[in-house]
Design a protein that fits this description.
- It is a single chain.
- The chain has one domain.
- The protein has 8 helices and no strands.
- The protein has helices spanning about 30-35, 35-50, 65-80, 85-105, 115-125, 125-135, 145-170, 175-195.
- This is Protein YIP.
- InterPro entries: Yip1/4-like (IPR045231), Yip1_dom (IPR006977).
Length: about 200
């Protein structure tokens, strides 16, 4: 019984001679994962102006931008000495389900807002709270009134953006604008309380 290495088949599974696949033929990793940085940037830019929000860019919902904003909020909270990764993620999930349930109960059978879109909207409209968290790093701890006033302004900004997008993206949302705004106000008050305290 002998073992002859010379007779082994050179066309094994790890031999790429004559193969047609190479790294140049592969599509970029971001495209393969469905992450489009220019789309994330345009959605983020549309939230920056609270008085004129472009709802057409938000018709195609994604979760890569909200995950980026979630990580930014967690990073700023970590720089403030607060380790709240799980709390923030849990609140995003619960608030998305809350907004989904509230809108679809108000709209009845004509409610066409799905949970993926709600999570995308809640995540992108978290941008003012991320800005508040970054700005609160430079405000001294003793300035409680300044923190509360700033938190109120940023909560109103996030509420206006989120309620405007929900009303414009869903059918029949205009008649329930006040109740949707109240639900969004409660959601972003919770996130701003994490930043203030």
């Amino acid at each position: 019984m002998s073992f002859d290495i010379g007779s082994a088949d050179p066309a094994g599974p790890f031999n790429n001679r004559g193969g047609s696949s190479s790294f140049e033929d592969e599509e970029p990793l971001l495209d393969e994962l469905g992450i489009h940085p220019e789309q994330i940037w345009s959605k983020t830019r549309s939230i920056l102006n609270p008085f004129r929000i472009n709802q057409t860019v938000h018709r195609d919902s994604d979760l890569s931008g909200p995950i980026f904003l979630y990580l930014a909020l967690c990073l700023f909270q970590l720089l403030a000495g607060k380790i709240q990764f799980g709390v923030i993620l849990g609140w995003i999930v619960v608030s998305s389900i809350f907004l989904y349930a509230v809108f679809n109960m108000l709209a009845g059978r004509s409610g066409n807002l799905n949970l993926h879109t709600c999570t995308s909207l809640v995540g992108y409209c978290l941008l003012p709270v991320v800005v508040l968290s970054a700005a609160s790093l430079f405000v001294p701890q003793g300035a409680g009134v300044v923190r509360f006033v700033a938190a109120g302004v940023f909560v109103l900004w996030a509420t206006r953006a989120c309620s405007g997008l929900v009303v414009s993206l869903a059918d029949g949302g205009g008649e329930h604008r006040g109740l949707i705004s109240y639900a969004c106000f409660l959601i972003y008050c919770l996130f701003s309380l994490l930043v203030v305290f």
